[in-house]
Specification:
The complex is a heterodimer. By secondary structure, chain A is mainly β. Chain A has no helices and 11 strands. Helices cover 0% and strands 56% of the residues of chain A. Chain B is built from no helices and 11 strands. The chains are: A mainly beta, B mainly beta.
């Protein structure tokens, strides 16, 4: 059974701190890794679709890297703000469907 | 910006009742999905739908579940006889289908189904 794991499960940081979290996935038969940001009562928002080993993508203060050989991706947030508080989900693309990790819940205190 | 919409936002039903969850995907998208998240668990794939037929379904998607695109805009998930364990947040998603693995799947805000 294909397993996608995220760590940590939750993270509490102060405003201005930089933070990062990890998504681990199977390194064989890799097609793509998706990152989403999900705030309660809202639609999960697509952040990145990562496909190539060594990929690095950036959106404002958020960036992500990909290592397909060892099966992990990091998401970084520079200078966290309270509005960054959300659950960050990664999802492994397989055969057209997404297989999700359990998410990292980020809380940023002012 | 186009978005996926879902109705209702919250549905409460009695065990054994039928429910229909509705979704309006983004208009030029061709591939549609249902996922669900049971409280405290991972988001899990239920079914994908393309060209008016099911492309793939998970083990969860048994005979109690069905999907339909009754017109050019709506995409529905029907649960024929709900069980307590069907209580979950149900997400609809859609994608364009021109980039394959690089296509973003756009998600709706979900319908929280509570089975009593």
């Amino acid at each position: 059974i294909l397993n996608v794991e995220q760590s940590p499960q939750s993270l509490h940081v102060q405003e201005g701190d930089s933070t990062n979290f990890t998504c681990s996935f199977p390194s064989s038969n890799f097609y793509a890794l998706h990152w989403y940001r999900w705030e309660t009562a809202k639609s999960p928002e697509a952040l990145f679709v990562m496909t190539l080993n060594g990929d690095e993508k950036k959106k404002g203060r958020i960036s992500a890297t990909l290592n397909t050989k060892e099966g992990y991706s990091y998401l970084y947030i520079k200078g966290s703000q309270p509005e960054d508080s959300a659950t960050y989900l990664c999802a492994f693309f397989q055969g057209g469907k997404l297989i999700f990790g359990q998410g990292t819940e980020l809380s940023v205190k002012p | 910006e186009p978005e996926v919409t879902q109705t209702p936002s919250h549905q409460v039903t009695q065990m054994g009742q039928e429910v229909i969850l509705r979704c309006v995907p983004i208009s030029n998208h061709l591939y549609f999905y249902w996922y669900r998240q049971i409280l405290g668990q991972k988001v899990e794939f239920l079914v994908s739908f393309y060209n008016n037929e099911i492309s793939e379904k998970s083990e969860i998607f048994d005979d109690q579940f069905s999907v339909e695109r009754p017109d050019g805009s709506n995409f529905t998930l029907k649960i024929r006889s709900t069980k307590l364990e069907d209580s979950a947040m149900y997400f609809c998603a859609s994608r364009r289908m021109d980039g394959g693995r690089t296509d973003t799947q756009y998600f709706g805000p979900g319908t929280r189904l509570t089975v009593l």
